[in-house]
Amino acid sequence: MVNVAIKRDLLIIKGLMERFPYGASIDEILGAEGLDLELRTLQRRLKKLKENGEIYTSGGSKATRYHLSYDNHLVREKERERLIKTKKEGISISPEGKDIITYLSKPVSERKKVGYNLGFLKSYRPNIDAYLTLEEINKLTILGQTNSQYQPAGTHAREILNRLLIDLSWNSSRLEGNTYSLLDTQRLLELGESAEGKSLEETQMVINHKDAIEFLVELGEEIDIKKYIILNLHALLADNLMRDPDSIGRLRSIPVGIYHSAYSPLAIPQLIAEQFDLILEKAKAIENPFEQAFFMMVHLPYLQPFDDVNKRTSRLAANIPLFKSNLSPVSFVEVSNELYTQGILGVYELNQIDLLKDIFMWAYEKSAIRYADIRQNVSEPDPFRTKYRDEIKKLITEIISSNLSPKEGSLLIKSRASNIPIEDRARFVEFVEGDLLSIHEGNFARFRISLSEFKIWKERWSR
Fold first, then answer.
1. Which site among 173, 204, 234, 286 is 20 to 30 Å from 310 CA-CA?
2. Over the stretch 267-279, which tens digit does the pLDDT of each residue have?
3. What is the DSSP pairing of strand 114-115 with strand 263-264?
4. Residue 63: pLDDT band by 50, 70, 90 thresholds?
5. Are 24 and 144 within 8 A, CB to CB?
6. Bridge partners of residue 129, in order along the sequence
7. What does the longest C-alpha to C-alpha distance in the chain come to?
């Protein structure tokens, strides 16, 4: 019979192991905050948990890792469903985030002029300090789990690559003011067709995102936060977009300014190089992949290590630890350009990460739901889709039954969207375009079209 003290130890150990969704070494468990056991005692407790089937081990004798059993992961799956069911349509802004928005609403001339704060990065101690709370990390871990958890690095990203290329290329470009639509992006990336009326710069930006994402995915087991990877990531994103072609993939040696901001980035090349190396050193030392991802989103843009294309680089760099750990990526689905800019400016001018964190948490949830394909578990319909259900359905039915090409369909979508309230237009277009991309032989019937109509349209749409 197990006594009360042992039962308590077993419960504590299982609770601590929730912090290690990909397993933990005995040293990691022993050093976890909240556990006060001698090594031999811990070994006995772990043996007992394994005998009970509550944990299992992986790795050799010198590299043994302890994992929570499948039953415990079922508990997480239920919690994942609960989180999804209770998600809100819009981003929930924290009080601290609202304070940042209030401050940034003042004219630039009334905001305090600031330079790069060396202490902001220097004071951060990996695995001691954290931007994300334990509760936030647990939530992200629950949402981000995939079936590729124990596969080689990058497996999950490869499995969803086709959709990821379109989503991340489009959303990251959109956050830079790019006017390509989701359908335009699909045509460009899959068929090489540039959209009419778009600038060469916009087209190049989307193509560069595709090349950069493929570069990260093709790294396989090599993927990590490494200097050559970040430099090459920038080179791919900046290709044919920089005034000085020699500046791509190179650290900045000239001063730069930030439009509509009271922040002036570091201007001394030697210090830029030192801070860049320190960012990578600290980021690589961070054990949790979500904390790593957000750390890169904060500090790469703040330093402005390159002449331009810094935010784009940070958004893709944030996916490196997620790809490596086979977690769902973050593709910034539905993130407002204006709100994202305010989150970044909060870091620049105040060294406050709260608003950017609000955005990251919300964006990751939206992305994880998409790539984990768990919409079937959501019992509560999306209120926006419910609101425009008839309009979306009728428009898609018209596009298919009229056998419209992507170009014709895009024009009709924009025309119909003009009848939607202006604050909902962009999201309406995204919903329609997203549905068109996801229609297949197993789900077309909901649009009241025949199989022959679907096949004829699909053949033309895919040319």
1. 286
2. 999 999 999 999 9
3. parallel
4. low
5. no
6. 126
7. 76
Q: Which ranges constitute the DSSP H helices of 239-331?
A: 269-285, 289-303, 310-317, 320-324
Strand, coil or helix: 328 = coil
The rounded percent of the chain whose pLDDT value lies above 70 is 90
Q: Is 197 helix (H, G, I), strand (E, B) or coil?
A: coil
**What sign does the dihedral 95-100-104-109 (CA atoms) show?**
positive
Query: How far apart, in Å, are the Cα atoms of 425 and each of 70, 154, 357, 440?
Result: 44, 35, 26, 25
Q: At 264, which helix (H) or strand (E)?
A: strand 263-264
Q: Which residues contact 32 (CB under 8 A, 6 or more apart)?
A: 16, 19, 24
In this predicted model, what pLDDT tens digit does every residue of 166-223 receive, in sequence order? 999 999 999 998 999 999 999 999 888 898 888 999 999 999 999 999 999 999 999 9
- Please state the three-class secondary structure of 46-72 as a single string: HHHHHHCCCEEEECCCCCCEEEECHHH
Q: Which residue is listed with tokens 């899959």?
A: 190
CA angle 375, 381, 387 (to 5 degrees): 130
**Integer Cα distance of 137 and 293 in angstroms:** 12
For residues 215 and 207, give the distance between their C-alpha atoms in angstroms, rounded to a whole number: 12
Q: At what angle do helices 310-317 and 227-238 cross, to 10 degrees?
A: 130
DSSP per-residue codes, 85-116: HT--SS----HHHHHHHHHHTS-GGGSPPEE-
CA distances from 119 to 123, 275, 316, 333 (A): 6, 11, 25, 33
* Helix (H) / strand (E) containing 429: helix 425-438
Q: What is the DSSP letter of 263?
A: E
Helices 269-285 and 227-238 sit at what angle, rounded to 10 degrees?
120
The C-alpha atoms of residue 60 and residue 152 are separated, in whole angstroms, by 17
Angle at 328 between CA 277 and CA 325, to 5 degrees: 50
- Tell me which amino acid residue 451 is: L
Direct distance between the N- and C-terminal alpha carbons of the chain, in angstroms, rounded to an integer: 69
